Amino acid sequence: MRTRIKTTPVRVGSIVIGGDEPIRIQSMTTTKTEDVEASVEQILSLVRKKAELVRVTVQGMRQVEAVKQIRKRLKELKVNIPLIADIHFFPKAAIAVAPFVDKVRVNPGNFAIGSFLELIEVCKKSNTAIRIGVNHGSLSEEILYEYGDTPKGMCESAFRFLRIAKEANFDQVIVSLKSSNPLVMMRAYRLFVAMMPSEGVSPPLHLGVTEAGEGVDGRIRAAFGIGPLLLDGIGDTIRVSLTEDPQEEIAPCRILKDLPPYPGSLTYDGSSQEEAIVQLSSWAGTFLLEAPTLDLKISTPFGSEFDQRLKEGILQAARLKMFKADFISCPSCGRTQFDLQTVTKRIKESTEHLIGVKIAVMGCIVNGPGEMADADFGYVGSKPGFVDLYIKHQKVVCHVHESLALEALIELLKKEGVWKEPVSV
Ligand code: SF4
């Protein structure tokens, strides 16, 4: 592993991210933030798994109040895990919650740049860090107009906010440049690192692949993007976003954190399937971007079927060959409008055979449509128990009851001529 790229240490509550500190592992709750007891319970389960930071979603002032309660409960329980507030669209909530959390995440694609300075001033007073969390799928109109949805546009989106922070003498800022496409996120982080010296900033980098999905494919996609960057010395904190219980995100993070350097062949001889998936996907990501090939030789002790499945998953993550439908699904959070894990599984089972079709399953309309990137079809929670269906970014079916939504999606796939009956074996 190369020496880590030196970044500015940023204090986030009881820990420091960046500088000479170890890579930090984090996750996010999926409970409604205003359900204080459930949120505290989930945070405790993450602490038991040894997550080092935890993020909660803050949509508005109701959640700001809930965060205060969560903090109080954690203090009573003597739990000191740094708490992060995740903000979209609502600067007022960011400014109100900043004194009660250790870090505020804002998305420059939907956070008014005019309010950023105000947020910085509050964060300075309360020793709260900020993450500028760029998302490939939700860049601002201005950035899209100037740069398109490119890695350059993602970097520029972050630098616009960073320049304001620099001007205000505030360096407690972390940056992320996530995408559901691991190739795009890898390019964005590498470009950002190359641009850091000329911008005169060196913020710690939070690595992640958004909407990676679940199961084997979710782990492959996340590792394929995050692993090669870590092996190149890029990255100070990581999150593996899975459409699963957040506790399940911690084990792949730990494997990534301890990733051995690429030994020159895709061979694994340990005893953990999850470790094999994460290590081999990471190693493949170190060379497939520059030297694309379909000729991957994977060898594990888990049998040829496992090896073949892993190979197909890696080639699909690298977008070199499609073996089944591609799924983008958000990890869910307090904004989720339906049981995302069950629904994603059901949609996958019914549509996986549609080779090459990209389907997004997103928990809410606040961020879902923006973040479903280049999906061909979208299944997005519109209000509790109801779903909107999309073709690309165009809403085509509104408010279908969730009991009928899978059928409606299949009808839409038929109408668009991409449906095929599954072949029963
Ligand atoms: S898209 Fe999913 S993870 Fe993102 S805000 Fe909506 S429900 Fe939460």
How would you characterize the overall build of this protein?
The chain is an alpha/beta fold and 425 residues long. It is built from 14 helices and 17 strands. The protein has helices at residues 36-48, 61-76, 91-97, 113-126, 141-147, 151-167, 182-199, 215-231, 250-257, 273-288, 304-317, 340-351, 368-371, 402-415, and strands at residues 10-12, 15-17, 24-28, 53-57, 83-87, 103-106, 129-135, 173-178, 206-207, 237-238, 266-267, 298-299, 326-329, 358-362, 377-383, 386-391, 394-401. The strands form 4 sheets. The chain has an 8-stranded parallel β-sheet. The chain starts with 9 loop residues before the first strand and ends in a 10-residue tail after the last helix. The mean pLDDT is 94.
What portion of the residues fall into strands of 2 or more residues? 15-25%
The count of helical stretches stands at 14
Q: Which stretches are poorly predicted, pLDDT < 50 over at least 5 residues? A: none
What's the N-to-C terminus distance?
45 Å
Radius of gyration: 21 Å
- Tell me about the biggest sheet? 8 strands, parallel
Helical content stands at 40-55%
